[in-house]
Amino acid sequence: MSGKVHVELLLGCRVLDVNDRVVGRIRSIHARRRGHDYVVEEYRIGPTAFLEGLGISTARMIGFQWGEPLCIPWQKLDLSDPERPRLRCAKEELQ
Q1: What is the pTM of this model?
Q2: In CA terms, which of 47, 48, 63, 93 is 20 to 30 Å from 57?
Q3: 63-95: burial string, b at 16+ Cβ within 10 Å, e else
Q4: Kind of pairing, strands 37-45 and 14-16?
């Protein structure tokens, strides 16, 4: 997909994989600056990603960690319909 998608439309969106299984919700988006633009590198899914986005470490907060957020490389997420983002693969292929 080429073009622009507004980040605020993606945060909190539920992501399905190619088998119509729920992967989770987009909780944070990681981008890198390239010249005058920012280019998305990955999307992070799950409660740990949400807390990470707030700068909260679950390990420090409650003494243990829930695990790592699920990271989706930008090229594995189909945003042709930004309201319904979909993985281009099965969820298991990400782990």
Answers
A1: 0.76
A2: 93
A3: eeeeeebbbbeeebbbbeebeebbbeeebeeee
A4: unpaired
Full domain range(s) for residue 31: 7-88
Task: Please tell me the distance from the alpha carbon of residue 11 to that of residue 23, in angstroms, as a whole number.
Answer: 14
The least confident of 59-63, 81-85, 88-92 is 59-63
77-78 and 86-87 beta bridge pairing: antiparallel
Left, alpha or beta for 67 (phi > 0: left; psi -120 to 50: alpha)? Answer: left
Q: What is the pLDDT of residues 6-30, one digit of tens each?
A: 888 899 999 999 999 999 999 889 8
* 78: in domain: yes
Give me the residue label for tokens 């979909």. 86
Spatial CA neighbour of 27 closest among 59, 60, 52:
52
Q: What is the CATH number of the domain that holds 22?
A: 2.30.30.240
Q: In whole angstroms, what separates CA 52 from the centre of its chain?
A: 12
